[in-house]
Write a sequence for this structure.
């Protein structure tokens, strides 16, 4: 190699020497895919355990009465679809009567809570009046009171009004904002709305009724949807208060009617009971399926998370 070639080689920039990273053994490398599979398997097993009673009830609704408690698994070996036809007309009235009664009570309760609780929440969140904090604290305390404490004075009051054996005790209190949980939920949502909207409406000459109906109420759609879904589910599955106030079999709701399939002094039709119980779960599943998006959004934006 000549002198000129040596000078040219020495003039080339040299790359900095970098130490190669140490080789990671195959066993110590992270396995995100395996951990994800294990996590999904654990969650699936938890869901199966949680839903096992429901699956057992659905399967038992398709078994004869003599094989319901002798076969404890969820695998169906016999098929008895007559449980649904017999259960539909097994009581004094067709089961459609009880479904209609529950629908009336649920519809009245949902409308009552949406109207009463939203107006009360607006008063607590936007109005200024004496003893506001005291009234709000009392409202929060009512959330901790169980129904068993209130049912006796309520029964005495409704008996004096002549409302026993009617749907009024189950519907009218909802219009008076007796569910403190939904009031608190809506108050938290309204407090998150900017007050500049109210001030701009007042500059245009709007009062509190117009502000509530035109501005606040449309923005409360997530909270209203959450209230409607929870009210639907809780009222549809309510048994205790409906059993106390309804005494005529023709006015029974679905939970009270299902109790009529079990008779301590006569034969109990468990197949028909499970069949009608399966049918009674369909409205709840539909309400939760179609309202799940609004339910999650409402809880996330109202401070109830």
């Amino acid at each position: 190699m000549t002198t000129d070639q040596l000078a040219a080689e020495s003039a080339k920039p040299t790359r900095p020497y970098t130490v190669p990273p140490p080789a990671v053994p195959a066993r110590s490398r992270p396995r995100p895919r395996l951990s994800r599979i294990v996590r999904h398997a654990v969650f699936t097993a938890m869901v199966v355990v949680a839903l096992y009673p429901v699956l057992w009830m659905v399967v038992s609704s398709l078994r004869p009465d003599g094989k319901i408690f002798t076969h404890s698994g969820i695998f169906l070996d016999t098929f008895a679809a007559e449980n649904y036809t017999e259960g539909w007309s097994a009581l004094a009235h067709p089961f459609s009567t009880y479904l209609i009664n529950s629908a009336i009570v649920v519809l009245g309760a949902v409308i009552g809570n949406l109207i009463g609780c939203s107006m009360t929440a607006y008063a607590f969140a936007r109005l200024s009046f004496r003893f506001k904090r005291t009234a709000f604290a009392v409202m929060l305390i009512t959330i901790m009171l169980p129904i068993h404490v209130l049912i006796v004075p309520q029964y005495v009051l409704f008996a004096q009004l002549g409302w026993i054996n009617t749907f009024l005790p189950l519907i009218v209190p909802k219009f008076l904002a007796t569910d403190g949980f939904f009031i608190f939920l809506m108050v938290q949502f309204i407090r998150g709305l900017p007050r500049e909207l109210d001030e701009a409406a007042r500059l245009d000459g709007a009062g509190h009724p117009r502000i509530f109906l035109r501005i606040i109420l449309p923005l409360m759609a997530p909270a209203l949807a959450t209230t409607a879904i929870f009210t639907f589910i809780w009222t549809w599955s309510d048994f205790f208060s409906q059993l106390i106030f309804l005494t005529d079999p023709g006015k029974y709701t679905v939970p009270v009617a299902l109790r009529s399939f079990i008779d301590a002094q006569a034969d109990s039709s468990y197949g028909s009971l499970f069949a009608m119980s399966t049918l009674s779960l369909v409205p709840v599943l539909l309400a939760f399926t179609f309202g799940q998006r609004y339910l999650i959004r409402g809880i996330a934006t109202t401070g109830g998370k």
Notes: The chain has a mean pLDDT of 83. The chain is about 65% helix and 0% strand. The chain has two domains: 33-80, 94-300. The two ends are 78 Å apart (CA to CA).
